[in-house]
């Protein structure tokens, strides 16, 4: 299964559809020209299971078909392979095909290449996620801006309608006032022109004057923009507890053990400081073995992170842990918490 995963991982490298996909890198290397007996300082710029491409510091004295020996280090792992110069540009570049490669060293090289592929895929996925998040934020901002524009337009329309209603009410009151004054002037003119007929004019012209209708317009308030805040997703993590006990890490693919001490422990994983420099990278399958409180644990997992420049602080995430072992780890953490509480209580 692991061999199939490694092959699938390498096939997807850089999206290239080659028999032997290549990984781009830039590491120091040394090239031995077997026939000439001299070492040439160079840098390895491409690497695959079948061979590599090397850029030398000086012009190569030998052409294609020459036997060589390449020595280089990738991700902290040293390699030394025999090969044949397949081609050269006559200056500084040479393509080398590996020959007589031991199966164990080939597996180690495949594991390193798979780690590089996984790291590159993780970076690409992270970049794609960031681009999607940026696109979603942009769409959300555009939607919010559109909603705000619509609300502002609705507020403007409401203001215009209220102003038009106030103008109509003012015009109506002015028309009623003019009509009332015209009626008064007409009555005065008739009274001056025909005094004997004043009572008759008054009797015929009596009518109830319309009272000016007060405006009962209620102010229309502008709608307030509702603030939309995205709900924050809680990112809960398993609480970690500091411990100090010896531990060992088994590199499953290599079959070798690394000794160290556990720095902290949680239900999801642990952090171990190894006695030696950690030789491999992230996404490597491992098993962790330690003993706490008289109980021995051996839990499978994967390397989640390698901290510090000295590559000795290793973060491990537990995988495929049985319910019984998980319950034991949980009981152990509860005992650690209880012991810490008693110590804190004793200090106070």
Task: Explain what you see.
This protein has 348 residues and is of the alpha+beta class. It has three domains: 12-101, Thrombin, subunit H, CATH 2.40.10; 121-201; 241-347, Thrombin, subunit H (Beta Barrel). Helix content is 39%, strand content 31%. The strands form two sheets. The chain has a six-stranded antiparallel beta barrel. β5 and β6 (93-99) form a beta hairpin. α1 (2-11) crosses α2 (103-193). It is elongated and about 140 Å long. The model is unreliable at 12-18, 194-198 and 207-236 (pLDDT under 50).
Topology:
Layout: H1 2-11, E1 23-33, E2 38-47, E3 51-56, E4 67-74, E5 77-88, E6 93-99, H2 103-193, H3 198-205, E7 241-251, E8 256-265, E9 269-274, E10 285-292, E11 295-307, E12 313-318, H4 323-347
Helix pairs in contact: 1-2
What's this, in brief?
The protein has helices at residues 2-11, 103-193, 198-205, 323-347, and strands at 23-33, 38-47, 51-56, 67-74, 77-88, 93-99, 241-251, 256-265, 269-274, 285-292, 295-307, 313-318. The chain is α+β, with helices and mostly antiparallel strands and 348 residues long. It is elongated.
SSE order: HEEEEEEHHEEEEEEH
- Helix share of residues? 25-40%
Strand arrangement within the widest β-sheet reads 1-2-3-6-5-4
The value of Rg in angstroms is: 43 Å
| Helical run tally | 4
- Main sheet record: 6 strands, antiparallel, barrel
Which fold does the CATH topology of the largest domain refer to? Thrombin, subunit H
Arithmetic mean pLDDT: 80
Low-confidence stretches: 12-18, 194-198, 207-236
By DSSP, the count of extended strands is: 12
**In the CATH hierarchy, what is the superfamily of the largest domain?**
predicted glycosyltransferase like domains
- Structural class of the secondary elements? alpha+beta
Give the second-level CATH assignment, the architecture of the largest domain: Beta Barrel
In what range is the share of β-strand residues? 25-35%
Based on CA inertia axes, which overall geometry fits? Answer: elongated
Distance between the termini: 55 Å
Number of domains: 3
**Regarding CATH, which class of the largest domain?**
Mainly Beta
């Amino acid at each position: 299964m692991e061999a199939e995963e490694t092959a699938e991982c390498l096939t997807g490298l850089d999206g290239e559809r080659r028999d032997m996909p290549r990984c781009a890198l830039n590491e120091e290397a040394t090239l031995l020209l077997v026939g000439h007996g001299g070492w040439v300082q160079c840098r390895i710029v491409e690497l695959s299971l079948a061979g590599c491409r090397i850029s030398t510091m000086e012009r190569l004295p030998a052409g294609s078909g020459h036997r060589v020996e390449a020595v280089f280090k990738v991700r902290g792992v040293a390699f030394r392979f025999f090969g044949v110069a397949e081609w050269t540009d006559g200056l500084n570049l040479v393509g080398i095909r590996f020959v007589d490669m031991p199966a164990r060293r080939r597996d180690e090289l495949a594991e390193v290449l798979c780690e590089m592929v996984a790291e590159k895929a993780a970076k690409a996925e992270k970049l794609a996620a960031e681009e999607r998040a940026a696109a979603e934020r942009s769409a959300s901002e555009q939607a919010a801006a559109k909603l705000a524009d619509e609300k502002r337009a609705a507020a403007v329309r409401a203001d215009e309608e209220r102003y038009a209603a106030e103008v109509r009410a003012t015009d109506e009151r002015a028309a009623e006032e003019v009509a009332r004054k015209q009626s008064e002037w007409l009555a005065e003119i008739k009274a001056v022109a025909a005094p004997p007929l004043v009572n008759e004019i008054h009797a015929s012209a009596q009518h109830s004057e319309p009272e000016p209708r007060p405006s009962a317009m209620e102010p229309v308030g502008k709608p307030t923009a509702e603030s939309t805040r995205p709900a924050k997703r809680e990112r809960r993590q398993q609480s970690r507890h500091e411990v100090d006990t010896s531990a060992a890490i088994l590199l499953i693919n290599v079959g070798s053990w690394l000794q160290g001490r556990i720095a902290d422990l949680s239900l999801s994983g642990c952090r171990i400081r190894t006695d030696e420099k950690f030789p491999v990278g992230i996404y490597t399958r491992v098993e962790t073995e330690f003993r706490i409180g008289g109980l021995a644990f051996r839990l499978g997992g994967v390397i989640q992170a390698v901290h510090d420049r000295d590559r000795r602080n290793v973060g491990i995430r537990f995988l495929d842990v049985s319910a019984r072992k998980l319950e034991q780890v949980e009981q152990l953490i509860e005992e650690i918490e209880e012991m810490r509480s008693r110590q804190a209580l004793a200090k106070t």
